[in-house]
Amino acid sequence: MNCQNVKDLILTDYLDDQLDPQQKSAMEAHLKGCQECRVYLDAVRNVSTLPFEKAQHVHPPEHIWHNIKVAIENEHETADIVQETTVPGFWQQLGILKRLALGAVSLVLLMIAVTTVQKTSHRPIVKIDNTAQIEYFAYLIAGEDADDVTEDYGTMIEEYFL
Amino acid sequence: MDDLTEDIVLQAARGDVEAFENIYKHYSAFVYNVALRMLKNIENAQEVTQDVFVTLYRKLETFRFESSLKTWIYRITMNTAINYAKKVSRIQDRTVEFDANRYPAASPSKVISQDQLQKRIDALLSVLNPDQKACVILRSLEGLSYEEIASTLNININTVRSRLKRAREKMLSIKEEVMNL
Ligand SMILES: [Zn+2]
Fold first, then answer.
1. Distance CA A106, CA A84 (A)
2. Which of B42, B113, B123, B173 has the highest CB neighbour count under 10 A?
3. pLDDT per residue over A126-146, tens digit each?
4. Nearest CB to B50: which of A13, A43, A67?
């Protein structure tokens, strides 16, 4: 195990006690003989576990439950009214109507989409929503796209101990 | 589920508000604390807490006991809080840089108060994006294992690792400023 591997594990599995006993003792053997990694471990602990361990848990204020209760009871009442005022059969009819309406709407949307594509395809420049574009670039610059990529974590953690 | 019996959950699923209040009592602290840390703002955290429980009440009917109620509730909480945080950060600044001026230094003292601790935690979390923040909160504040985090956030376990790694590297980079708070 080299220092880089050890530091990666300090940031993750070692700090969070997710290693099996064998892996853990391999880590500890390295730490024993390596001052640099020991200093690193201390620093990481100071910012990423210690402050959180002492943090207080609080309870939500009373009025939160009250608000929730009002919201769900209102919903109940509306649901009851709907049930009382409808005859059986009505929902089935509505179901058919809904499906017909949905079909018609999809057809219209499809036609609009086709015309739009036809129109825009003649233009060399495609207009892109600015905010979305800026956000996307900010995302790339910040390197957040690598967030979900697990390659840098290599494969399985076991390989670190080979 | 500890003291929450399947009966209570079933009653709540049928719309029984009193049974649902038991579920609220059991999980409201988790939901509220996660929301507070994710959003750093009491009003937003309260709004998220309300949203989560109204959603739970509506969806409880569809809960099938295939996964644990805890995982299911945690998942809805994290989805709601992460989406809210993303929405808020889109509206507000996209500052990822740590700004020491936003966290005025406290008087020098060996023993740190809850207030100082709070400032440190806020400052540390402020440099993380919502996805990284979620992993740090679930791990370091709520004590979930990597596997539990993965299933709560519906992500691969190695993604949990890489998010925690990046998050902690970021927090480490502001160590000097934060420790002086
Ligand atoms: Zn080393």
1. 32
2. B123
3. 343 444 434 433 333 344 434
4. A67
Q: Which domain holds residue B180?
A: 98-181
Closest chain A residue to the Cα of B20, Cα to Cα: A69
Residue that is last in its domain, among B94, B121, B143 = B94
The per-residue pLDDT for B5 is 87
Assess B20–A contact: CB distance below 8 Å, yes or no. yes
Q: Which pLDDT belongs to residue B4? A: 84
* Ligand 1: centre distance to CA A162 (Å): 16
Question: Which residues of A are less than 8 Å from B156 in CB distance?
Answer: 150
Give the predicted TM-score (pTM) of the model: 0.72
What residues have their beta carbon closer than 5 A to ion ligand 1?
A: A 3, 6, 34, 37
Q: Which amino acid is at A115?
A: T
d(CA A47, CA B176): 10
Alpha helices in chain A (DSSP H): 3-11, 21-33, 35-48, 50-53, 62-85, 90-121, 130-141
Do B104 and B83 share a domain, yes or no?
no
CA distance A16 to chain B (A): 8
User: What CATH number does the domain containing B110 carry?
Assistant: 1.10.10.10
A73 vs A60, A68, A105, B19, CA distance in Å? 20, 8, 34, 13
A129 chain-B contacts, CB cut-off 8 A: none
Residue spans per domain, chain A: 3-53, 88-121
B4 with B89, same domain: the answer is: yes
Residue of B36, B46, B94 with shortest CB distance to A138: B94
Residues of chain A with pLDDT below 50 are 86-89, 120-155
Predicted confidence (pLDDT) per residue in B38-78, tens digit: 998 899 999 999 999 999 999 998 888 777 899 999 999 99
